[in-house]
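FORM 7B: Structural annotation worksheet

SECTION A. Query
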Amino acid sequence: MAELYFDEYRIEDEFTKFVRTEKDSGYFTGDIILKSAGNYIFIQNVVAEEDYVASCTQFLIEDVEPPEEYVKAVAVVIRTFVYHLAVNNIFFLPDSLPYWVYKGVGNLSSKVKKAVEETHGEVLLYLNSPIYPLITYCTGGFTVFYEEIFGDSIEYSVSVDDSYSSSCAYYNWEIKVPVNRIQHQLNLGRIDSIEVKNYTIHMIPDTILIFGDKTYQLRGVNLFQSLYPLLPSPLFQMEVVADTIIFNGKGKGHLIGLSLWGSKAMAVSGKNYKEILEHYFPVAILSKMKS
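SECTION B. Predicted structure
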């Protein structure tokens, strides 16, 4: 077989393309671009934003028959994220993000297609600009401020009641982690005891002191990120018992923005997607933007 050399090869046609890569549906709209770099070939998909929104919405919707208003709310949040990047001149996204994954359009349900169509162009705005929305699986009764997790503040990030998450399995949780696992994960020496020096306004450990062969200091969020998904959220209390660290916490995810479990429960209770979005993003305004 003859060798094929190219820098870039673009597949353009009006039909859906089939490209089998790891962990995707295999079917993609838009153009497929193959880029050669050394011994590797990178695959890019130039896709319309609504197809991207539909694919990522499908990834987040775990239920076979999800409430329609819940699906619409998720679609608007993902579209807002895409538009937020676009107005900041970012048009290139990885297929895998912390909150969702782009897998093409081969597995889209009719309910997801309908939700994306019926909310076409709708995004959440603050001062006429798309916000940076975040998604969490569920909370322990309230969402938290952006600055509690990431340090810097966002004006439109607020904390709201999320009692709708109360039936979530992660509303309250207890996790036991061997001390040696944390030593290995964080590259620490001996651990004798742990003290939380201070907390954020919603009782997220802000500064943690670890005493042992020497004193280590880290943020609770860093510990959560290092141990995720073993540690479901950054909202926890902790104590050392023998060779185990016991974590008692609340929620799953970063606890910011749209609560998937809570928004689904709101939809089941009869709330529409506009009411759901207004609840979790009370400072933002739902509006239509041109592509």
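SECTION C. Observations
Residues 49-168+254-288 form one domain. The first helix runs from residue 49 to 60.

SECTION D. Sign-off
Analyst initials: ____
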